[in-house]
Design a protein that fits this description.
mainly alpha; about 0% strand; rod-shaped
């Protein structure tokens, strides 16, 4: 019964359908086999969570990098404009 709760609890975390299906199949196994499979299943779930966390961090870093590049491009354009303005002023 506890395994059924785990399956539904983890499916609410939006695990891939295949992993949720695997948990349901493991829950149906006889207890001696289920114990071995539960440990492996938990490692797979931990791996999926870790990969999602890493993906989220990478996406966040890319978003920050894009924003930083926009600021740098703005600064570069402003610096070029200032340079050109000063160059024109010196030529007069």
């Amino acid at each position: 019964m506890a395994n059924d709760f785990r399956v539904f609890d983890e499916s609410s975390e939006q695990l891939p359908k295949e992993i949720v299906d695997l948990a349901k199949h493991i829950a149906k196994l006889p207890p001696p086999y289920r114990g071995n499979m539960d440990a492996v299943y938990e490692r797979v779930v931990d791996s999926v969570r870790r990969r999602r966390r890493i993906l989220s961090l990478v996406q966040e870093a890319l978003s920050q990098l894009r924003l930083d590049i926009k600021y740098l491009m703005f600064d570069l354009d402003a610096t070029r404009d200032e340079r050109d303005a000063l160059k024109d002023k010196l030529e007069e």
